[in-house]
């Protein structure tokens, strides 16, 4: 189905959410007033690794306004421990206390919780909780953590290697032997964190009479979150209502149930008083969740013309101190989709996850973010080694339409993607040949220009079958309902958890399309487990495909019934000659559609209030629900092009131009999609250039303020040029493919490849990020003398 | 800690409130004046989400105590729209998709209500420089810059608040 066939899907409508945010009337966690609420503040470990010898909270308890102080031992009595033990080969089962009882494992680990009349008093009292620690040796370095003599982060394990998987496809050894050259490349991504501008927070209200917990929390996954909370509190899911209001960004940080949130819920139940908690920014930067610390090595067997014969990947991830997710969760996906848009059937991977005394890892917008940098960096390495044009190497190996569907070595199937089209579109936009001429001319003047290209095949929507084949527990399904009231008012709901994307806008367009009403007539309800159906929530880039898809299907069901009733009223045999446009029934005579004199409101009134006129056997009402399990995996694709100038004297980098050609199939809202493209590229660039969580060798977090953990501002980021392309998927409802993370993948690779292109005269390669001036200047000085001061030809 | 009775002038109204001397202006606005449009993102003056106008100039409300604000005119995001009509800046942010989660938006609105008054015809570079005091994690800033440019043009052309 092409975009031209849609009436409401794809319209550039401004967002429904904006008005309340613009006038200061959004409702985030802290905006919810709760009478009689107590405020929680956590006492946190100043050590990276220590035994808790004793906790003396007497002085804190005696302070004004303090209601109680609880420790890990208290919370342990009220809750079940966390056990992470999915049946994954090579993954060691681990357990976690609800709050640490015996040992702390990172700087910032919570050890006690103070509840007081206000947040100021709670913070005062937290400072007076005296914890006696016996400091233990810590390990904060990935490589050292694998040393058999290294301190063990989890005493129940034999080593810090918590997860290790290997797989091979084809005959990599043979290809390596036959190859003209085996090209090796290395890639290290540094530790980052999500930095939603609204930090984590929650409010627990326990109704002792009804034995029911209402839990307000910004969550990407309200229903799975409710399930986790219920299990840990030993309550039935029906005893908990999770309400996720307006959320000030998530990016993967607001998925799991955190120990602080569990403690707040348990304490509210114990005290029979509402309790609220909001972390401050220091806690957010040092104790919430972190991501991306991965190091990779590829070995590519190539022919003399640059043809890729075989590929090998080793990836090791620093997973931090605790497993809030299966430790293979992020890195395994990188290994499964690495080869992306390129033809190669001989492939093997080795995926390790290692525990260290740092904050536990979580997926962060594009948990597989390193993928495209690794693959495209490998392509550039091949070109460098063989002295070929890097674009020619890409073209030689890239899938063409005729290759599709293409079964990757790992068994993943690529369909309906257009890597060659986005690649050529991006190269044309930046005028590749002209750039090379400008680059040469600039070098002659001592200036270092660079152009980086990064092709992205983004895994967007994970169906249940993918989870099964990747050895990850979970379902990929989504659920929706559509309800038309007797007045004709339309409401719809889905199990996604909004964190600012613009779902109320985009999803109303999916419902409008399926049903035949204006998007403005559709009210979308999200983030309330008593209202929304059980869905898997928002993660990956599944919102459009899974959420929009199931709403579209459900709205199609609704339209079918509306038209069947209309046909009966109009005295027609079937609904085939009827349609609904803007909430009006239209009838076809010949090739001409004309108004049939019926509106949705007329049909709705009959459906509910005059059911005897309905077709025989049709139940009254217009109330629909539907579930949908997407295909195993849906892919979008893009090509990013980034032009930079590197100052040879200072190592400072300027972003001169940024172009993205992206094909994400049918888009529900081009407004929302463009916003997601910008935001994802910005997060990728910010991470690659500036952001870095720094721990010293003792495990002290040195980046606990936004003045130390640097997020790119408007002054550092470029304008973005987007070339939209829309090849629909033939395997999803309405042809939606999903998007929102690929921008991160492309940006990380494009900017680093651009830097390496600029560095080429010095014959040095940046193999790690962030690309700070200090790092780049050091590379230049270690390279060939005079680079950037002469014409290399 | 001893509380004090103070009078805050916020959005043209007087609020008689009782606060501890250490209470931040941001917390007093949100909790005592019940104006929750001002958001708190870092409490150390970097993110800019809590920006309000003090005597017409942008200020971080997380870096001031409420008790310091007696005798000053404070404006928060709640005062920018007139009844149902958005300001040219708010309208441009809406049209250009210059906001996503909305958490940083009030700080940006307040910063640029003042900026556009002082800079009727700003360059993109000036806009980006001024915007660098407000962190946004969702948008990548491109559309915010476009919206500010558009708002500046409309203000130069004498356009006012717009209804729905």
User: What order do the strands of the largest sheet of chain B run in, or round the barrel if closed?
Assistant: 2-1-5-3-4
- Could you name the CATH homologous superfamily of the largest domain in chain A? Aldehyde oxidase/xanthine dehydrogenase, molybdopterin binding domain
CATH A-level architecture of the largest domain in chain B: Roll
Number of strands of chain B: 5
Low-confidence stretches of chain A: 788-793
Instruction: List SSEs of chain B in N-to-C order.
Output: EEHEEEHHHH
What's the mean pLDDT score of chain B?
A: 97
| CATH hierarchy class name of the largest domain in chain A | Alpha Beta
User: What kind of assembly state do the chains in view correspond to?
Assistant: heterodimer
Percent of residues in β-strands of chain A: 25-35%
Jot down its keywords.
heterodimer, A: about 800 residues, alpha+beta, Aldehyde Oxidoreductase, domain 4, Aldehyde Oxidoreductase, domain 3, 3 domains, 21 helices, globular, B: about 160 residues, Ubiquitin-like (UB roll), DNA polymerase, domain 1, 5-stranded mixed β-sheet, 5 helices, 5 strands
Give an overview of the whole structure.
The complex is a heterodimer of chains A (793) and B (164). Chain A is of the alpha+beta class and 793 residues long. Chain A has 21 helices and 32 strands. Chain A has 3 domains: 3-25 and 477-628, Aldehyde oxidase/xanthine dehydrogenase, molybdopterin binding domain (Aldehyde Oxidoreductase, domain 4), CATH 3.30.365; 32-136 and 199-247 and 254-287, Aldehyde oxidase/xanthine dehydrogenase, a/b hammerhead (Aldehyde Oxidoreductase, domain 3); 367-462 and 632-782, Aldehyde oxidase/xanthine dehydrogenase, molybdopterin binding domain (Aldehyde Oxidoreductase, domain 4, 2-Layer Sandwich), CATH 3.30.365.10. In chain A, the strands form 9 sheets. Chain A has a 7-stranded mixed beta sheet with strand order 3-7-1-15-12-13-14, sandwiched between helices. A 5-stranded mixed beta sheet of chain A has the order 9-19-18-17-10. Chain A has a 4-stranded mixed beta sheet with strand order 22-30-31-32. Chain B is α+β, with helices and mostly antiparallel strands and 164 residues long. Chain B folds into 2 domains: 4-78, Ubiquitin-like (UB roll) (Roll); 88-156, [2Fe-2S]-binding domain (DNA polymerase, domain 1, Orthogonal Bundle), CATH 1.10.150.120. Chain B has helices at 25-32, 88-95, 105-118, 124-131, 142-156; strands at 4-10, 13-19, 51-54, 57-60, 73-75. Chain B has a 5-stranded mixed beta sheet with strand order 2-1-5-3-4, with helices on both faces. In chain B, helix 2 packs across helix 5 (142-156). At the A-B interface, helix 1 and helix 19 of A face helix 2, helix 3, helix 4 and helix 5 of B.
